[in-house]
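We treat protein structure as text, and this decision shapes the records that our systems exchange. Because each token names a local backbone shape, the row as a whole describes the fold. An entry from our holdings is shown next, in its original layout:
>
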Amino acid sequence: MIYKHYFLEGNLTTFDKIIEKKIENIEYIDMEAYGFFQTASIFFKKDKIIVLKIVSDILKEKLKDRILFDFKDDNLFNESYKKIYDFLLKFINIPDNNKNNFNNSEQDLIKKVLENLKLSDTMTYEFFNILKYLKIKYGNINILKRYENIEVNSKVQGKKIFEEIKEFSKLNNKIEIERKALNNKNSSLFNNRFSHIYVEKKILNNKNTLEILSKFKDVKIIEIDNYKEVFSSNNQDFHLQKLGQKLILASNKPNMIYEGAVVCESFENDNFYYTSSIINCVYDCEYCYLQGVYSSGNIVIFVDIEKVFEEVEELYNKLKTLYLCVSYDTDLLAIENICGFSEKWYYFIEDKKDLKIELRTKSGNIDKFLNLKPLDNFIIAFTLSPENLALKNEKYTASFKNRVKAIKKLQEQGWKVRICIDPLIYSDNFEKNYSQMIEYLFNEIDKEKVIDISIGVFRISKEYLKKMRNQNQNSEILYYPFECINGVYTYSNKTKSYMINFIKEQFLKYININKIYI
């Protein structure tokens, strides 16, 4: 092992059947570890799996040679258990230079409190996530000290204290937010980011492929048979790849139109669908669900968008009306200078008045649309967050004020826009941040040219959040102690209701209630 430890180390060979005879060059054998490793390999990278066993089968002929430790002595067993526990506490905190790791005294405190509380395995796992959240947010877990010497006589009492700690973690103490300004300008972003471009051989001569490649100089072009060779390979690191994204150009697969998700707002439109001509985003928002969906942080552009247009037209002719979100798994406007897909959508629906599309964005890249005639069935929707949250949690996006400027410019050219406050993030100074944001917004834009307002709190599927936390272990947003409701993690009903009602009341100062969707 590459980690320092105090255990015997050997080669463990796993089998899916009973082994009764000695096998050459095999020392330790095991059946239980076989099933465990096969299952764990599905969910974790292999370097993240460690098998630590107290008992194992040893292929030695003589019985006396099979006994490494005699656990008849309780003290020896307790000592071994302590070593295992101490190792696990240190292991979950690797690397050591992470300021959000638990220090030695905090590890001792956690161990002592856990021994007192007698929590189940599931609650222990959640307990660690809560402590991780507190450590990220406040830099300490001092709240635990009040429970250090408490006597717990039953699991019920332990659970009650656990709930107490959980509720404390949700309190919104007014600590100062560290503001780290990021370079939000798009200039030179793409040439720096895409040092390599992978291209499927079958679309090498596609006109859209050639147009995209013409935008890049001094990049390495690599021919591939299928985009999944790169995008779906094993053991990728989403956030590491975000630091040096690669671009993959691929051919559309069939059936690229999907029914809209229940958790997404349809704005009272019938026949709600979405499509994704691009996978992944040049932006890097801390709360983005894409990091839970895909293991790769690279970007795939399905260049033959005309095939999608054919599918959409067929569906439109069948249904007669259609509401389609086209910027679902990416931000199309952010990458418009590369592929021009937003403009292609504009011309595709120009003569189809009952085919309505939504283009959602955090970009300020709206120059093309300033020179295009506004369409009632082409909705440009801006996702807004308070300035400090955008700077901290929405890397590379246009700043809040630049998004507002983009809205104002579009309105001046006759465009009506949609405003999306989604996801709402519960943070320090929640009321102040969001009320100031809304006040500034309506001091700058024309409220009469706002189509509607969408409000939604952070929500994510259970499986996605698990992957996102593994990928981003320093995220205050992701480690918030959410409630799991029907397989979806979100804020408690009480917190959610408060957040939505507060934002709604702020908007009602400027907008009719009929324009607000929740």
Residues 173-189 have pLDDT under 50 and may be disordered. The radius of gyration is 27 Å.
